[in-house]
Amino acid sequence: QVQPVESGGGLVQAGGSLRLSCAASESGRTFSRYTMGWLRQAPGKEREIVAAIYYSGGTTYYADSVKGRFTISRDNAKNMVYLEMNSLKPEDTAVYYCAAGEWEYGSIHPRWWGQGTQVTVSS
């Protein structure tokens, strides 16, 4: 299994940028074989998949709401996953979770996720 730990959340003004980082410790399997992704849950709303990246790093998924603004990347040598968030909007405010799982339906099927990091975008 893999245990993700997120960091980098905080308060940012609308239009600003923020980068989230995820350190994924792993046991029993090579980290680089997992599809990784980012989930988020806003107050009163269901959790949604924001972005996902295939183990090779060459195939990605983005929710329509963040496409063109967010970029997911990974560094398998460092067991790290990143989410670069640009042109942030107040509706991006949520708790963001780093997730590990498998590539499914063109996105991630999450199996494990971290404790989350709060992202708050002010207007």
Q: What is the residue-averaged pLDDT?
A: 93
Q: What is the H-and-E element order?
A: EEEEEEEEEEE
User: Which spans have pLDDT < 50 for at least 5 consecutive residues?
Assistant: none
Based on helices, strands and strand pairing, what is the structural class?
mainly beta
Q: Radius of gyration over alpha carbons?
A: 13 Å
Sheet having the most strands: 7 strands, mixed
Number of helical regions: 0
What percentage of amino acids are in beta strands? over 45%
User: What percent of the residues sit in helical stretches (DSSP H or I)?
Assistant: under 10%
Shape: globular
Secondary-structure topology with pairs:
Layout: E1 2-7, E2 10-13, E3 18-26, E4 35-41, E5 48-53, E6 60-62, E7 70-75, E8 80-85, E9 94-104, E10 107-113, E11 117-122
Parallel strand pairs: 2-11
Antiparallel strand pairs: 1-3, 3-8, 4-5, 4-9, 5-6, 7-8, 9-10, 9-11
